[in-house]
Batch of 4 targets.
Target 1
Amino acid sequence: MTLENNTPDTGTDSDLVEHIGADLWLAFRAYERAMYLQVAERGFEDISLPDSDVLVFIGPNGAQLVEIARQRRVSKQAVHEQVHSLVKRGYLTLETDPKDRRARIVRHSQKGRALVEALKGIKSSLHIEVADALGDKRLAELKDMLDLIRNQLQKQQH
């Protein structure tokens, strides 16, 4: 990991194996870094990439710990640790599920909702930045190509 941007050190471009997965991964990592730099600039300096792996699965009505774990394909204990870290930092709350007293519901706190709102604005500005760089036609072509890749790879999973 490099210290300055909390991402794996990929070395030089010539060190990478040439395949579409590497290209997609590098583009996505660049998007993530840009997003989290802006998150920090908006006052959420303590939010990291691993935090987003939990936050993305919590909707407006909250989510059960076990459901977050299932969607992430990790253990409930792994999710529990990350959730408790976010609770300590004030982004999430844990409540007993009124439908199942044994289960816990994870919800955004006021600070967590402010982060979600900030992320909406950041994602919108990044979209505009990419759209301006590509232009409407190339952006539409990119979306079509990404859909094609996703559909092709999903066919192999069934």
Note: The mean pLDDT is 88.
Target 2
Amino acid sequence: MRQFINGNSAKQKGFTLVELIIVIVIIGILSAVAVIKMTSVTDSANKAANKAVLGMVKSAWSAAYAVTKATPNATTLVAQTGDPQCTGTASPISCPVAWLSGTGAAGNLSITIADFATPNTIGCTTPADCD
């Protein structure tokens, strides 16, 4: 029963324990969803960066072919990429990237060239790195 103080009833101010627990649970659920979304976005961004490296090698093939009018070899492709950290004298070519699917860490993206005569055969050795 409420007590009367100075003729007014004393009212409780604030939230009940149940209301606070409900708010905390809702915040926890929203946080979990946000973390899952952020992980997915990060993986997509890393795969896009790897696709850019793959595209760089394909562009290097086109540029080398345009200059020499001959099928470029791995050494020519590596030189044409303009990235001093890309290496290789035969297939596969290796270029450093910030993320690999197997480890989730930085490493060297392995780019396989099945047929040096066509740029369509240039692809990632591990397809999950560039999907």
Note: The chain has one domain: 4-129.
Target 3
Amino acid sequence: MLLINKTSMNKTTIKSEITKHIRKSMGSSKPRLNSWYVGITNNTKRRKAEHRVNVLGLKFWKTFDAETMENANEVESYFSQNGTINRPSKNGANKFSKFVYVVRKPNSRPSGLNGPFTDENIIDKLFE
């Protein structure tokens, strides 16, 4: 399920919407955030490709327009402090990074050659 919210929202609303999205996706009122990533970007299409959403079968991608980099940074920081698996990026944000995105990371337990494999991703995984 890949969703893009094209309407600008304030940071409080974005935090609330991300929380609702995670709860609904996990089917829990108190989900653990350690399998989720909340980040910011200036280009949602490029960032989605960099995360290899389609190749790795990442689920529950959703983006929000926070209007400014400052707002986006605050939302990202909030979720990082509350348990998401964020880590510093080499490239960092720029002043146009006003989009916040949330994605559930796949199960990281490798099997085989950096599996897990499915019929859809085995060729891509073999030639990474």
Note: Strands lie at 2-8, 36-41, 59-65, 99-104.
Target 4
Amino acid sequence: MSKIEEAQTILKELGLPDAQQNEISGYTLLALCNLKEKDKWSKAFKQSHGISKGIMAFIAENFRKEYAPNTRETFRRQVLHQLVQAGIVDYNPDIPNLPVNSPRAHYAISEKVQFYFIQATPRRKIYTLIKRN
């Protein structure tokens, strides 16, 4: 299973609706976890990313998947907003009092979800851990 397929499976196991189990959501999860194709989920770490220079740049550099600059709003409205609502991603964790329209807005994987990734091993897949807890 490729890393993008694993990410989409994790999104499903986290209970996200079908619309947020797509490729763009999977790549976003991988970017927020700082994971490349060969990385293990247990190597995920929390680091804040903006959309264009963070998430979209990570995807382009590590997965050779380019998104047009005008898809920034798609990332924000159709992916990140739902991940924040589900408690999977934190919005502005480094500067929580940023205005909503700030160009410095950023996102990071939540501590709760990162905890599952740290426990993941080849035998204990992340989605098995999530289902158990």
Note: The helical segments are 3-13, 23-33, 51-63, 72-85, 111-119, 126-132.
